[in-house]
Design goal:
This protein has about 425 residues and is of the alpha/beta class. It has two domains: about 1-100 and about 315-430, Rossmann fold (3-Layer(aba) Sandwich), CATH 3.40.50; about 105-305, 3-Layer(bba) Sandwich (FAD/NAD(P)-binding domain). Helix content is about 30%, strand content about 20%. The structure holds NADP nicotinamide-adenine-dinucleotide phosphate. The site of NADP nicotinamide-adenine-dinucleotide phosphate has 22 residues, from α7.
């Protein structure tokens, strides 16, 4: 029997489990371990609460979880409760599918002032991630500045701009819903260090921004490139640019004005005890379409800054780490014999949920090539012995199903679920 441990139960973890099942058939025992008592990672705590159709992919992971060869071990922190060398001693292959749940720092003076938060924290707050349950950002009558031109920036702007009615059927958690339904930002400004033709936002998500009840979207026509550039763009980018051109048409301002401001880079954050303004440098594009400073400075009022500029994978003790890229040091998913990584922990935070599928197959094939036969390791029996010896309280998939049922049962009217946001409450619900 081949024993495989996958650390992380998000999309990369479950797609890899599925790929290992296809690669090794019945002759494999796969433990999917998560530090949280609940599975599905980014699908639960990253995907926007008003994008329920995307979250439906968890049914596919559930089908994998319920097969005989796979088991879920929740509430177990690898690197704290059990070390990577211990796991490698027990399993033929250990695969890190830990995602990229930490914010890349803005890296400018003042970025540690209260009121400057990263998207992992803000998204984690409204999605009920236990790490960010106490964030309680100040939103009402504030000037909110969102830094970054990716889909996460759009998620943050949209959730802030939506009315209570628009959020009703989402699974935004109660502590965030209570703040968001009362709060009305004075303005939301989305900053890009490059221009409208360089945004990483996809047209479906950008289009959604233009259909909000109380928010209007505005682009300065002077920022738009000539239409002659459109032809050279990828179809998706061309569609996104067309939407930005629509947003540049004169339109009445609604109560929440979302403004795009392009060609600006943050220089420093200022304020007495908390953020009050952001000092920016105007930029232009160089020959490689990268942004370079022009020396012109502008200052913008900011009561809340949400920086949506990408994520990092947190290091784990005993695993080689690439500080520059913010992920595990690896060669096509191989870290060292018997230790692999997949998904965002391997290639960084890019692509859609489905992009992780081929990653899983690549690693399953690499394991088969590296280890033609199982080494007769202890696998899950050895892990269970360690868990018992250390008195650790783990959560099984059956326990998760009880948590799931309890969350669905306690949902507010119209919402699909009300998540538990504290680990202790999750564990308690799992015990029934
Ligand atoms: P992203 O798509 O990589 O966008 C990051 C943005 O941050 C880029 O506009 C980048 O600009 C900018 N940036 C980076 N460093 C910066 C700095 N120091 N100052 C100013 N701007 C900076 O990342 P993301 O939005 O975090 O999304 C991560 C992945 O999840 C993406 O693949 C995304 O499509 C996906 N996602 C999908 C959905 C969906 O499908 N609904 C929702 C959310 C996320 P440059 O281009 O100049 O580097």
């Amino acid at each position: 029997m081949r024993h495989i441990a996958i650390i992380g139960s998000g999309p990369a973890g479950y797609y890899t489990a599925e790929a290992c099942q296809k690669q090794f058939g019945e002759d494999v025992a796969i433990d999917i371990i998560d530090r949280l008592p609940v599975p599905f990672g980014l699908v639960r705590t990253g995907v926007a609460p008003d994008h329920q159709s995307i979250k439906a992919v968890s049914r596919r992971y559930e089908a994998v979880a319920l097969t005989d060869t796979v088991r879920f071990v929740g509430n177990l922190v690898i690197g704290r409760d059990v070390s990577i060398p211990e796991l490698q001693g027990l399993y033929d292959a250990v695969i890190l599918a830990t995602g990229a749940p930490s914010d890349r720092p803005l890296g400018v003076p003042g970025d540690d002032l209260p009121g400057v938060i990263g998207s992992a924290a803000f998204v984690g707050w409204y999605n009920g991630h236990p790490d960010h349950a106490d964030l309680a950002p100040r939103i009402d009558e504030r000037d909110v500045v969102i830094i970054g031109n990716g889909n996460v920036a759009l998620d943050c702007a949209r959730i802030l701009a939506k009315t209570a009615r628009e959020l009703e059927e989402s699974d935004v958690v109660a502590h965030a819903y209570d703040i968001l339904k009362k709060a009305q930002p004075r303005s939301i400004t989305i900053l890009g260090r490059r221009g409208p033709a360089q945004i990483a936002m996809t047209p479906k998500e950008l289009g959604e921004l233009g259909r909000l009840e109380r928010a209007s979207v505005h682009v300065d026509p002077a920022d738009l490139p000539p239409t002659s550039v459109d032809e050279a763009l990828e179809p998706g980018q061309r569609k996104s640019l067309a939407l930005l051109r629509q947003f540049a048409e004169p339109s009445p301002e609604k109560v929440v004005a979302i403004r795009f401001d392009f060609f600006v880079v943050s220089e420093r954050v200022e304020g007495e005890g908390r953020v009050e303004r952001l000092v920016l440098e105007r930029t232009r594009l160089d020959a490689q379409q990268q942004s370079i400073g022009t020396g012109e400075r502008v200052t913008m009022p900011a009561d809340l800054i949400i920086s949506c500029i990408g994520y990092r994978t947190p290091p784990i003790p005993d695993v080689p780490y690439d500080e520059v890229r913010g992920r595990f040091a690896n060669e096509e998913g191989r870290i060292r014999p018997g230790l692999y990584c997949v998904g965002w922990a391997r290639r960084g935070p890019s692509g859609t949920i489905g992009t992780n599928k081929p990653d899983g197959f690549l690693i399953a094939e690499a394991i088969a090539a590296d280890q033609p036969a199982a080494a007769g390791k202890q696998g899950r029996a050895g892990l269970d012995a360690l868990i018992a010896e250390r008195g650790l309280e783990i959560v099984t998939f059956r326990d998760w199903q009880k948590i799931d049922e309890a969350e669905i049962a306690q949902a507010r009217l119209g919402a699909p679920r009300e998540k538990f946001v504290r680990i202790a409450d999750m564990v308690k619900a799992g015990r029934g």
